[in-house]
């Protein structure tokens, strides 16, 4: 399986994403620069955290219009797994691949620490290796992770089981309904504020994020490799 | 040429944590008359005249990039500037 790690000017978790796919999963991975115009040959897309374009205007607002984003939209439409973490989540929201928007953290502070997450939907291609309602520990590192959507969108997220991760215990940023990660209706685009790629080895303080990446590979193998 | 001023603020229905913090501070300074503070962005654009209606172009830019319609409102002022 081949992962594309999209790199925008200001991305800073791209190396961690690459490490998770390449070294931890042992799959193929390549960096793809934001002004590239093709994602041919890639099976999945990873949008890393960071501060693309300095977070100017709004987080993810400028990255969303990078040439590569046209290809990311096409890959999403083709049903390929797209994972956006932190700034990657913000880019997915701005691009309209996921509903809602980000506000500044309620505390107005940048928060960087491990948090507990509840897996609210383990029937996705990103979470199939977790148990339903399993609590995992993954770090967060953001100043704008206060997820917002209107009441109609929230109702639709709930109805379609699109809330995948919620903060367990304390909500660090004030997000609506403690939302930490959501998936699109088709189930192939996941955006989350916590960083699973920073929790893939006990050396890093925990490996609870690794199952997320392994779930992607499992689904891909079951769909393609087993049949072949 | 046009001089365009664009103002972007969080929607009334969206809590503005920065505005709330500033309001609290003003309150402790003795300005209890302040009922609400909303923090936003101000942008100045200089736009060349083209065949397209400038207002239509400004609206389009506001909706596509300058504001996020999910959480923000925008308003603008357009002035035609005389080139000497």
From TrEMBL, chain A:
<comment type="pathway">
    <text>Purine metabolism; IMP biosynthesis via de novo pathway; 5-amino-1-(5-phospho-D-ribosyl)imidazole from N(2)-formyl-N(1)-(5-phospho-D-ribosyl)glycinamide: step 1/2.</text>
</comment>
<comment type="subunit">
    <text>Part of the FGAM synthase complex composed of 1 PurL, 1 PurQ and 2 PurS subunits.</text>
</comment>
<dbReference type="InterPro" id="IPR010075">
    <property type="entry name" value="PRibForGlyAmidine_synth_PurQ"/>
</dbReference>
<dbReference type="InterPro" id="IPR029062">
    <property type="entry name" value="Class_I_gatase-like"/>
</dbReference>
<keyword id="KW-0378">Hydrolase</keyword>
<feature type="active site">
    <location>
        <position position="195"/>
    </location>
</feature>
<keyword id="KW-0067">ATP-binding</keyword>
<keyword id="KW-0963">Cytoplasm</keyword>
<protein>
    <recommendedName>
        <fullName>Phosphoribosylformylglycinamidine synthase subunit PurQ</fullName>
        <ecNumber>6.3.5.3</ecNumber>
        <ecNumber>3.5.1.2</ecNumber>
    </recommendedName>
</protein>
<feature type="active site" description="Nucleophile">
    <location>
        <position position="86"/>
    </location>
</feature>
<comment type="function">
    <text>Part of the phosphoribosylformylglycinamidine synthase complex involved in the purines biosynthetic pathway. Catalyzes the ATP-dependent conversion of formylglycinamide ribonucleotide (FGAR) and glutamine to yield formylglycinamidine ribonucleotide (FGAM) and glutamate. The FGAM synthase complex is composed of three subunits. PurQ produces an ammonia molecule by converting glutamine to glutamate. PurL transfers the ammonia molecule to FGAR to form FGAM in an ATP-dependent manner.</text>
</comment>
<keyword id="KW-0436">Ligase</keyword>
<dbReference type="Pfam" id="PF13507">
    <property type="entry name" value="GATase_5"/>
</dbReference>
<keyword id="KW-0658">Purine biosynthesis</keyword>
<keyword id="KW-0315">Glutamine amidotransferase</keyword>
<feature type="active site">
    <location>
        <position position="197"/>
    </location>
</feature>
<keyword id="KW-0547">Nucleotide-binding</keyword>
From TrEMBL, chain B:
<dbReference type="InterPro" id="IPR003850">
    <property type="entry name" value="PurS"/>
</dbReference>
<keyword id="KW-0658">Purine biosynthesis</keyword>
<dbReference type="InterPro" id="IPR036604">
    <property type="entry name" value="PurS-like_sf"/>
</dbReference>
<comment type="function">
    <text>Part of the phosphoribosylformylglycinamidine synthase complex involved in the purines biosynthetic pathway. Catalyzes the ATP-dependent conversion of formylglycinamide ribonucleotide (FGAR) and glutamine to yield formylglycinamidine ribonucleotide (FGAM) and glutamate. The FGAM synthase complex is composed of three subunits. PurQ produces an ammonia molecule by converting glutamine to glutamate. PurL transfers the ammonia molecule to FGAR to form FGAM in an ATP-dependent manner.</text>
</comment>
<comment type="similarity">
    <text>Belongs to the PurS family.</text>
</comment>
<keyword id="KW-0547">Nucleotide-binding</keyword>
<keyword id="KW-0436">Ligase</keyword>
<dbReference type="GO" id="GO:0004642">
    <property type="term" value="F:phosphoribosylformylglycinamidine synthase activity"/>
</dbReference>
<dbReference type="Pfam" id="PF02700">
    <property type="entry name" value="PurS"/>
</dbReference>
<comment type="pathway">
    <text>Purine metabolism; IMP biosynthesis via de novo pathway; 5-amino-1-(5-phospho-D-ribosyl)imidazole from N(2)-formyl-N(1)-(5-phospho-D-ribosyl)glycinamide: step 1/2.</text>
</comment>
<keyword id="KW-0963">Cytoplasm</keyword>
<comment type="subunit">
    <text>Part of the FGAM synthase complex composed of 1 PurL, 1 PurQ and 2 PurS subunits.</text>
</comment>
<keyword id="KW-0067">ATP-binding</keyword>
<protein>
    <recommendedName>
        <fullName>Phosphoribosylformylglycinamidine synthase subunit PurS</fullName>
        <ecNumber>6.3.5.3</ecNumber>
    </recommendedName>
</protein>
């Amino acid at each position: 399986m081949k992962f594309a790690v999209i790199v925008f000017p200001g991305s800073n978790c791209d190396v961690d994403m690459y490490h998770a796919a390449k070294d931890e999963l042992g799959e193929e991975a390549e960096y793809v620069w934001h002004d590239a115009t093709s994602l041919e040959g890639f099976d999945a897309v990873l949008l890393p955290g960071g501060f693309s374009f300095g977070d100017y205007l709004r987080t993810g607002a400028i990255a969303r219009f990078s040439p590569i984003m046209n290809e990311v939209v096409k890959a999403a439409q083709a049903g390929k797994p797209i994972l956006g973490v932190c700034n990657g989540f913000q880019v997915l929201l701005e691009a309209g691949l996921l509903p809602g928007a980000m506000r500044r953290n309620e505390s107005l502070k940048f928060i960087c620490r491990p948090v507990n997450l509840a897996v609210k939907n383990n029937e996705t291609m990103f979470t199939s290796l977790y148990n339903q309602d399993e609590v995992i520990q993954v770090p967060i590192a953001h100043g704008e992770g206060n997820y917002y959507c209107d009441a109609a969108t929230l109702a639709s997220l709930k109805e379609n089981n699109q809330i995948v991760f919620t903060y367990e215990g304390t909500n660090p940023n004030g997000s609506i309904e403690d939302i930490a990660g959501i998936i699109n209706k088709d189930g192939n685009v996941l955006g989350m504020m916590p960083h699973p790629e920073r929790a893939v080895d006990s050396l890093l303080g925990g490996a609870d994020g690794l199952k997320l990446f392994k779930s992607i590979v499992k689904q891909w193998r079951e769909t393609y490799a087993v049949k072949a | 040429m046009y001089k365009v001023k664009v103002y972007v603020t969080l929607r009334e229905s969206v809590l503005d944590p920065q505005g709330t913090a500033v309001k609290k501070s003003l309150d402790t300074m003795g300005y209890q008359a302040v009922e609400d503070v909303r923090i936003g962005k101000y942008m100045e654009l200089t736009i060349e005249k083209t065949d397209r209606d400038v207002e239509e172009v400004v609206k389009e830019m506001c909706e596509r990039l300058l504001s996020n319609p999910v959480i923000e409102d925008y308003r603008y002022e357009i002035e035609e500037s005389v080139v000497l």
